[in-house]
Every structure is written in structure tokens, then in C-alpha cells.
Fold this protein.
Amino acid sequence: MIYQKVKTSIYYFNSEIESKKNYKTGANQSLPSETTMRRVCAWCQKELNPSESIAADQDVPITHGICKECYSKLIPCKAKTLKSFLDQFTDPVFLVDSEGRVVTSNSAAISALGKKPEEIDGYLGGDVFDCKYAGLPGGCGNTIHCKSCTIRNTVSATLQSGKSHVRVPAYPDLYHITCENKVRFLITTERVGNTVLLRIDEIAEENGSC
């Protein structure tokens, strides 16, 4: 059931891109000219359609799309499973649905969390990441604390607008973290049909205080 839902989402995304005859996502329509804006891949940071009119060190706005190489990873051939193409990424990657549930994840994500796939797939993000508020009445997404959750808000914003977000700092309230240790994530999101790919680019501990 979960795989069929994702398969449908992938098909939708593939059809959308083919109809445009390019490798832009929905967030990159009606963009300013390349002389005023630089486009880079949200996943590998490769510059898209480089222009000689923009110097490498020129301070111009940056927008994000997806390069052909990363596109080929995101859109699997029919013989591949969803899990196998997610495993092509070395960073932890989660496919999240509109309800905030993890549809599936790659091996790097499973290793980073120290959990089994059956403890991740189908669960809400707060339960997957062991957020200390997920156990409150209402659960993940329904507590007063969830309104300020950067991970949830970034995923929702990407799903609603189609706009990718790159290396956004997020400080999840993890259940096992004390006042002396605070975990910082850098997250990147990309919409794929009716789902969102959530990648954790960096995990670091910082000194914190209550």
C-alpha cells in the first residue's frame, strides 16, 4: 500500500517534468533572467545553466532546481524499488507524505537513527526522530510545540509551494538530549509529487542551555 502510493507520486512527478521538457521543478517557473539570478542544484550544489555574465564571486540571489544527474537518481527506472534509488544518496534521506509520516527511508537514515525500517516506515516524523513532545496528548503535529518545529514547517512549506529549501538549520527537541547538549540538523527538502524528500545534510551537537 505504501509503495503503491509512492509509485503514484513518482509517476506524477515524472510526467510533470516531461511535459516541461526540462529538469526544472515547479518552484523554478517564471524566474528572473540568468543575469540576475544563479540557479544551483538543491541536492549536489552544481550550478545549472552557468552564464558568463555572472562572475563566480558575484553576490546575486540563488534559486534552486535539480540537475540531470540528481534527477536520474530521483526518478527510478521501473525495475528499481523506491528503497534502492534512495540508497544511492550517501546522506540520510526520508520520503515524507502530506500527513508528516515517513513513507520510506534510505540505509543512511536507518543507520543514523539506529533503528529498524519497521520502526521508521509509516510513523510520524516526531516518533521517528524521538521528539520529546511526540508522546504528549495529540502526538506529533498536534501539540502546541509543533507549531515551531522547523522540520515539520519546512516539509509542509515545500509540499504546499513546491519550493525547495536548502540546508535549513533545525534544532529538534530530541528525547535523549539534555540542556547541555543540543542537536543541530541542516535539512534540505524537494517536492516529489504529493510527497517530500527530506535530506539531513549535517548532524552536529552544540552546547545549549535551558
User: Anything to note?
Assistant: The longest strand covers residues 195-207. The two ends are 43 Å apart (CA to CA).
